[in-house]
Amino acid sequence: MQAFSRRRGLTLMSALAAAPWPLALHAQAWPAKPIRIVVAYPPGGVSDNVARALAERLAGALGTPVVVDNRAGASGSIGMDAVAKAAPDGHTLGFAAISPLALNPHLGKSPFDPVKDIVPVASVMYSPVLLLGTSASPGGDFKALLAAARAKPGVVRWATSGPASLGHIMLEQLKGAAGVDITHVPYKGGGQQLTDALSGQFEVLSTNAGPAVVQHIQSGKLRPLAVGAPARLDALPNVPTLAELGFAPANLTSLFGVFAPAGVPQPVLERLNGEINKALRAPELRSRLIASDNVPTGGSAAEFARQIAQESGNNARIIRAAGIKAE
Question: CA-CA distance, 126 to 109, in Å (whole number)?
Fold first, then answer.
């Protein structure tokens, strides 16, 4: 009887040793302390405001403080590097666009491995990219702009927020697909770019949607030509997407989401994904996103990872073909 009990005890111990019970215990104990969301952009912007609203919802759902830590710089790579190097215990998350994973590494700008060091948790929103004509641009729609570019190669100037930015990628894709010569005018950020657009310093600009931009559209100072988005915007229902115009590869948006260091236990990641999706269904958060001209997304972590991989592959091809170099 004693030997039988010993065998049963040994068998039970072996089974426990083989089972993934440490992960289960970890998930049950999580969160054990405040959660930090590293936002890869400065305070006060749309992404920062959205991250803080999301942090507030998560704090209530998880029963622990959720604090925001802004780590701006290097097109989001500084903040995401902090996430990549954090302990994989579910207490450090990142909030950023997917560019630090899907664009920056192809330009030699990444201090971490975007595949091995970071895991996507959930997409949160996409920020549409507007293509706008200024007072210097020829009249008409987007097709008229392309016709002007064909008639006078290099005369049409397109301003973006900088070399190797999402707008620059869109421009190079369009130039190749449409067979036109358009001059790239890179800026360091969007503030001066918008100021110069209003004074007609160039013909067209690409910029993220936002209340200030929409206000200038409504006043007639800027003319919407096209939008990079999965669908037309409610605020601009008559403006076609680039996909509708026949330029699907250039139909890019700034997709934002939550990320974690690689190695966070799967039960924790699944809980986070579920809570983020619940938060995005809450009317208050949805209305805040829509009011800032961003579109709530959500969904599974697997689908988010697929979107990142797809955009990364597209960016790599465009960068190689156009010979785009980072500053």
Answer: 23
